[in-house]
Amino acid sequence: MSHAHARVEPLRRQLGLNRRQFLAATTGMAAAAAIPLAQPAAALAASNGVLIPPAKRGLILFTVRDAISRDPLTTPHPSGFRRVFEALAGMGYKQIEFAGYRQHANAEGGANLETVEGARLLRRWLDDNGLEAEGNHGFIPGSWPLSTADLDRWKQTLEIANILGLGHVGTGSDPTSSAYKADWDVAAAKWNHLGSLADQAGLKLYTHNHDAAYNFLLDSGPLDAQGRPTRSSGIRKLEYFLTITDPKLVYLEMDIFWAHVAQFKHRTFTAPDGSPQTDIFDPLAVVQAQTKRFPLFHAKDGKSNPATANGYDMVPFGTGDIDYRSFFSQMGAKGYHNPMYEQDNAPGTDPAQSLNYAALSYTNMAALRG
Question: What PANTHER family does UniProt report for this protein, alphabetically (predicted)?
C-alpha cells in the first residue's frame, strides 16, 4: 500500500463512502491546485463555471474548534489560532470567520484575544498567512433599549472587528427565539439600531440562523390565555424580519444545511380560519429575491436521512446530497457572496479529523462547477 493510500483510507472510512464515492467527491483536486490564485480576465472567461472563486473559499473556525482550543504542549497537531491559520492557508483557504476569540491558555497570545491587543495579534497572523477575516459569531446586546454597558461593549466589538479587517459583524443566534410577531417587531427595532451603528463603523451587521427561524410566525387567529395569537398567516419568521428591517443595515448569513432542514421539517401551519395548510420552503428562492442581503453563507453539506428529526446528517462539503451546484449557480450576484465551510461534527476522537475534513472540503469547493 502506498503512503498516499494509507493516508486517505482512514478518512474515506470515516466519511462512510465507498472508493467510487470518495474518488467522485475529491475529483478535481489536481485541477483545483493548478488554478492560479490570480487569473487574467481571458483565463477566467475560459474557465467559466467556477462557482466559488479562490478568494471566496472560506471556513468558520467553529468547524476546527478542537484545534483552536487544544493545549499545544500536549499534542503534535496544529493548536491555537496561529498554527491553525497556517494549516488552513496551506490547504488553500483565503477567508475565515471567527466563532469567538478564545483559545487554549498555552497557545501563543494566551486564552482571551477579545481585546484591542489580542485583535492586533490575530490580524498580524491573518496577514502573515494571506487570510482575510469576514465575520464573527460574537456579542449582540441583549438589552433594548440598549443599556450603557451593552452599548460600550458593542462599540468595543466594532472596534475589534475593524482591527481584524472584518467586512461583517454578527452572531450565531436568531434575533429572537419567539414565534410571535410582536417579539419580532421589537427585535427588528433593535437590529435596525445596531445595524446603523455597525454601518457607521463601516461594517455589515448579520444574523446567522438555523431551521427554527424558518418556521411559521404566529400572527393571527384566536388569542391564548396570555393574549398571544395561535395561528399563522403563512409567513415565516425570518422572512417577516426581512420585511421590517432596513436592507441597508441588516443582513443575513444563511446556513444552507439548516435551511434545507427547514424545508424538511417546517411544511405545515394552521391558517387564521383553523384550516391546515402546506407550504414547502425554498431556500434558493429566498436568496434570489434579495441576494445581496446574504453576503455570507455557511456551506454545510448533508446526507439525506429522512429517519432523523432533521432529515439530514452533516458531512464534509461535497460529500452530501444538498445540490450546491444548482444553489450557487442560480442565486445571483456571482462573486459577491462569501461561503464558509462549516461542519458542526467535524471534531472527533481522531485529533486530525477536523483539519482533514477541512482539507477535503476545500478541494470540493474548488472543484465545484456550474
Answer: HYDROXYPYRUVATE ISOMERASE (PTHR12110), INOSOSE DEHYDRATASE (PTHR12110:SF41)
